[in-house]
Amino acid sequence: MRLAFWRAGKDKAVVERAVSRPKAEAKSSEAASKIEAEPMPVAAKQAQAESGDIDLHALGAVLARKRGWIIVPTVLALVASVAAVNLVTPRFKSESRILIDGRENVFLRPSSDRSTEERQSLDPEAVTSQVQLVLSRDLAREIIKKNKLAERPEFDPVLQGISPLKSLAALIGIGRDPFSMTPEERVLDAYYERLQAYAVDKSRVIVVEFQSADPDLAARVANSIADGYLVLQQNARQDQARSASQWLSGEIENLRKKVSDAEAKVEDFRSKSSLFVGTNNTTLSNQQMGEVNTQLNNARSMKADAESRARLIKEMLQSGKPIEASEVVNSELMRRLSEQRVTLRAQLAEQSSTLLGNHPRIKELKAQLGDLDNQIRDEAAKISRSLESDARIASGRVDGLTASLDQLKKQATSTNGQDVQLRALEREAKAQRDLLETYLGKYREASARESIDTAPAEGRIISRAIVSNTPAYPKKLPIVLIATIATLLLSSGVVVTGELLRQTAPRAVAVFTPAQTQTPVRQEPIVPPVVQPVAEPMLDPVVEDLTPLQPEMTADADVTEFAEIELLADSLRAAGPAAKKVTVLGTAAGEAITLSTLTLARHLARDTRVVVVDLAASSPTIAAVSVDASAPGLAELMQGEASFAQIITRDKLSRLHLVMAGRPGFDRSLLQSPRVTLAIDALLRAYDHVLVDAGSALDLPAELLTAHARAVVVPDASMAPDARALMCEQLRAVGFSEVTMLSRPVQPSDAAETPRVVAA
User: Fold this and answer.
1) What is the pLDDT of residue 510?
2) How many CB atoms lie within 10 A of CB 27?
3) Within a 10 A sphere around the Cβ of 603, how many other Cβ atoms?
4) CA-to-CA distance for 126 and 123, rounded, in angstroms?
5) How do residues 131-153 score in pLDDT, each as one tens digit?
6) Percent of the chain predicted with pLDDT > 90
7) What is the spatial distance between Cα 386 and Cα 331, in angstroms, rounded to a whole number?
């Protein structure tokens, strides 16, 4: 929904005002200005008080006038502090330093740790724990007894007498009554009051500081604490080693009995189960099974070898081939027969060269050669039969060994359960034996550490305390300076606080005064009220900035519109929260609407927080009166290019805050975003009044302008009364809670006077 307004006299031009004013009127105006300028200092002071600014010149004058209230307490504090630090008994401080390094004797270190020579670094918690050991009560009692501190009045208040002041403090419960404490408690309190032990940052060094009125005693006690700390550690390690050796000796006796019983159970069970151990830590049954298995394999290989050789010789005999088996060739008989056969063949060959085949000698040789061949074959057959016999013998042996192996397997199967029980007993005996050996080794180490010479402490003294001749308490110069400066600041603060309360008293009265009593007393409508600006008096630059807006500005300005706007501002101020949001719109020129908005806002900004939001962007006046003409606006805020702190600027001549629509050339569609409504709601929570310059409101959402807002209409001067009444009814109909119409707008020709209408 868009708001559209009729503009009466749309085609009429704005008539320019006269250029000059009569000299008489000018003189009367100057006279009136002088008359109103006379009470200026009082008004300025009142405005300054109302604005919350502090008058530094007045504060300086009050401090100079009441300097006696500051100097006298300061001098008294100086004298009292000097006397106090000289009456206090001085204390001397000495310190000793201990390094915590975890030393260990390399010759007594366990064998498992001898390869690592590096010490394990201590963590900060361990060093802090050692500091608490230095502060332990057991060590404190030893030091008190060694140095006879209980016999010194410095450590026992009863010996030196109780002052009446301390007795009174004890009666009212502020302090402790020394007579209600035991002598040991009194000495311990004094001891811990003078002792301080702490660890140096980022190190393993402990500093032991002790204070006393006697410098020799302070150094002696500090060194005694360091020595006692080391002795305490050595005794602790000795006690630990002694306790360990005693406990280990009893455990070793029990373990010896357990080991003996466990080993006896193992041997008894082995004898009952016949699980005797042979060579290579194996049982006899397993060893026999292995041997039988080996013999069985050998018999099988011998049987197969004999059968193969016999079969080969038979095949040679059957085929009629020469017998070339190794058993036949290597036989002594076969070797002699072969030699005879070779001799006969040689003779046959020799005789065949001279005799014919039917010769008796040739026949005889051939008969002898055939007989030798038959003998060779018979001998090979015998060898084959002997190999077959060997194969049968090996087969019988294989059968026997197989039966033995099966019997051994059955026997091993029956003894497996007993073997498992035997191994369990052996493991138990071995565990007990290992534990006994471990305890024996630790017992030897603990026995070796019982001597104090072989039990080094966890630290060593790297710096012993020496006697100090400079008192550590009290610090005279710092105490005197602090007391004097604190008194000076306190007395000055009291004087300044009283003056500030006096300066802010009128402002408090004005705040609680009803709005009706805050209306201006001056009612002369002769000239516009001319008041100096509260925030920054920059009249001349503003006139120069406004000059380009209207080159023909004159001093001729009618005061009617200013008086009307001032009355309107008073009514809006009286309305309070009901007039937090005011939308200024109308049918006049954009320049006139903007000037009217600024004039109304400056009247409201006298004693309230006001911001003007420019949504029309139809006039350069907003940028001209702003302290930052190039500041971003709502368009940049919608685009995320600026923040709220960047878009809010100030008016040059008043406490008024300004928010521009955007830099030149921005996209007006950004002002139609719902986020603009959220931005104005945020401004409503921060300011007393938010004035929205809507111009003619042709392209702005109705919800943005009408939500919880009053309307101030700036009509065209030539607009008819009926048109004005109709416009007011239409504005109420669209959602405005209340509509106020000005009789006439602030014209651009009145711009010379407009910036000067500020909070009086």
Assistant:
1) 34
2) 10
3) 26
4) 5
5) 999 999 999 999 999 999 988 88
6) 16
7) 13
Q: Which two tokens stand for residue 302?
A: 């011998």
Count, in order, helices (H) and strands (E) of the chain. 24, 12
Between 181 and 726, name the one with better pLDDT: 726
**Three-state SS at 612:** strand
Q: Residue for token digits 């008073």?
A: 570
Is the preceding peptide bond at 529 cis, omega within 30 degrees of 0? no
The backbone torsions φ and ψ at residue 96, rounded to the nearest 5 degrees and listed phi first, read -125, 155
Determine the Cα–Cα distance for residues 450 and 245; give it in Å rounded to an integer: 9
- What's the rounded Cα separation, in Å, for the pair 346 and 364? 14
User: Cα–Cα distance between 28 and 30 in angstroms, integer?
Assistant: 5
Instruction: Please give the full DSSP string across 299-338, using - where no structure is assigned.
Output: HHHHHHHHHHHHHHHHHHHHHT-----HHHHT-HHHHHHH
Q: Which of the four pLDDT bands, split at 50, 70 and 90, describes residue 298?
A: confident
What was the pLDDT predicted at 444? 81
Q: How far apart (Å, rounded) are the C-alpha atoms in residues 187 and 154?
A: 9
- Contacting residues for 330 by C-beta, under 8 A, at least 6 apart: none
pLDDT in tens, 308-365: 877 777 777 777 666 656 666 667 777 777 777 778 777 778 777 777 778 787 777 7
| Intra-chain end-to-end CA distance of the chain, in Å | 41
* Ramachandran angles phi, psi of 439, nearest 5°: -65, -35
Q: What angle do CA 660, 665, 671 make, to 5 degrees?
A: 50
Model pLDDT for residues 598-619, shown as the tens digit of each residue:
999 999 998 899 999 998 887 7
Phi/psi region, residue 148 (left: phi>0; alpha: psi -120 to 50; beta: rest), is left
SS3 for 231? helix
Torsion angle of the four alpha carbons 274, 279, 285, 288, in this order, in degrees rounded to the nearest 10 = -140
CA angle 125, 131, 135 (to 5 degrees): 140
